[in-house]
């Protein structure tokens, strides 16, 4: 079996700083012509409120299981080489990454489509919770992007 025959999945939920290049290097594959990424960073405002930081909590064993399941489903939809889904826990200051997804594939279409799908599924299904800390208070946030109703 050669490097181009191997499909590998990497999931990490950590309090460590997430480095985009390190995660891109993890998904490099000699048989891949494309690597696509998504990095979610803490922005400094939300609806005219000054954001100081984000705090993330997770039920780690379940979150890892859900992320692996999402990755498995992505593999059933697209022909992908290597996939890395990393999510930060604890405090994430403004400007730092809270989530990075990197996917390698033979062609760009598969990796581009799968990265968007993976982040949407993560936000919808993973038991990871975010608290936004503002200059004048804080609030636990739910992902409203994928809500069907209400």
TrEMBL record:
Molecular function as annotated in GO: molybdopterin synthase activity
GO CC terms, sorted: molybdopterin synthase complex
EC code(s) of this entry: 2.8.1.12
Primary location recorded for the protein, binned into one broad class: cytoplasm
Compartments, record wording: Cytoplasm
Keyword list, A-Z: Cytoplasm, Molybdenum cofactor biosynthesis, Transferase
Keyword Cytoplasm belongs to the record: yes
Pathway where this protein functions: Cofactor biosynthesis; molybdopterin biosynthesis
Pfam families: MoaE (PF02391)
Record-level GO BP terms: Mo-molybdopterin cofactor biosynthetic process
Catalytic activity reported: 2 [molybdopterin-synthase sulfur-carrier protein]-C-terminal-Gly-aminoethanethioate + cyclic pyranopterin phosphate + H2O = molybdopterin + 2 [molybdopterin-synthase sulfur-carrier protein]-C-terminal Gly-Gly + 2 H(+)
CDD domains: MoaE
Main enzyme class: transferase
SUPFAM superfamilies documented for this protein: Molybdopterin synthase subunit MoaE
Binding of substrate, residues: 107-108, 123, 130-132
Assembly information from the UniProt record: Heterotetramer; composed of 2 small (MOCS2A) and 2 large (MOCS2B) subunits.
Annotated function: Catalytic subunit of the molybdopterin synthase complex, a complex that catalyzes the conversion of precursor Z into molybdopterin. Acts by mediating the incorporation of 2 sulfur atoms from thiocarboxylated MOCS2A into precursor Z to generate a dithiolene group.
Family: Belongs to the MoaE family. MOCS2B subfamily.
HAMAP family: MOC2B
Protein name: Molybdopterin synthase catalytic subunit
Organism, as annotated: Acaulospora morrowiae
Top-level taxonomy: Eukaryota, Fungi, Fungi incertae sedis, Mucoromycota, Glomeromycotina
């Amino acid at each position: 079996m050669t490097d181009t025959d191997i499909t590998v999945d990497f999931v990490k939920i950590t309090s460590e700083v997430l480095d985009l290049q390190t995660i891109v290097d993890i998904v490099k594959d000699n048989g891949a012509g494309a690597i696509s990424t998504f990095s979610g960073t803490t922005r400094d405002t939300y609806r005219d409120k000054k954001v100081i930081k984000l705090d993330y909590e997770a039920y780690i064993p379940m979150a890892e299981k859900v992320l692996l399941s999402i990755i498995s489903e992505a593999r059933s939809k697209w022909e992908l080489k290597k996939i890395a889904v990393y999510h930060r826990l604890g405090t994430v200051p403004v400007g730092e990454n809270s989530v990075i997804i990197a996917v390698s594939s033979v062609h760009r279409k598969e990796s581009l489509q799968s990265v968007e799908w993976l982040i949407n599924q993560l936000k919808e299904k993973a038991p990871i919770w975010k608290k936004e800390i503002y200059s004048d208070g804080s609030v636990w946030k739910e992902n409203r992007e994928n809500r069907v109703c209400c």
